[in-house]
Amino acid sequence: MSESKMRIGWVGCGRMGTAMVTRLVAAGHDVTATNRTRAKAEVLGQLGATVVDCPRDLANCDIVFIMVSANADLVDVTSGAQGVLSDPAHAPGIVVDCSTVSSETSAAVRGACFLRGCDFLAAPVSGNPKVVAAGKLTLAVSGPREAFDKVRPYFDELGQGVTYVGDDEVARLVKICHNMFLGVVTQALAEIIVLAERGGIKRSDLLAFLNDSVMGSTFSRYKTPALVNLDFTPTFTPVLLRKDFDLGMAAAKKLNVSMPVSALCTEMVVSAIGAGHVDDDFAVLLLEQARSAGLTLEPENIAINDGLSGGKQ
Known about the structure:
Distance between the termini: 46 Å
Number of helices: 12
Number of strands: 9
Number of domains: 2
CATH superfamily of the largest domain: NAD(P)-binding Rossmann-like Domain
CATH architecture of the largest domain: 3-Layer(aba) Sandwich
CATH class of the largest domain: Alpha Beta
CATH topology of the largest domain: Rossmann fold
Shape: globular
């Protein structure tokens, strides 16, 4: 396959899928996209992508990327009646799944691809639509190395960091570990912010200090506007975070790894969901921590750079 002539297909045009396809189209690649709700894919059609009705219509593509929400969705768009593998005469050369799904589901889809003679790469991502737009998406990829090398130019268009981590489904565990760490860090931030505020320290001042210290990170800077101004517009919900904690704790049990901090954070996320925070951003853990301390937080309503748009906080 000549890289310059590869036919690229895309399944899943939600917030993340749309942002990722937008980068590929902007880089000059021809992309054919489909989504369960076609209207979401039509937005990409206005940007230059070709829109088709279902995953089966992508069977002639050289590479098909997938970005869906759950295990069942991945199975459906690959092995389902209208999936990319459902055309008996054609199958993609390489299927690349960027979703966050279980290792068991990933392995099943890999097997289905093998039976159709196509390679499968597990390529879960770290980031959200704003991170994608800023060119800071990262990916962990596992599967056949030769297939990875063929897809690498497209991975490089999607973000700033691509790490090949090995064979089969190991990228799934990398992503689950990442998201568990995300939850643990956010809960820790919530706790120290509430402690500081109870002591009379403004959230913006505490976070400015932390972000300029050795403890600061791209993540802490990025989340600072939300934590200071209490803007919980969703980038990643507590429901999705709980899914990843559940997957991670199941892996820990299987591998005989004790994870007491992660176990406690799982319960904190469950508590946030029980309090009704199902559609908020997972940074809403801050509100739950404040509530447990009997503290009512108010937005500071100040402009803060999130570190993704340039400039210093």
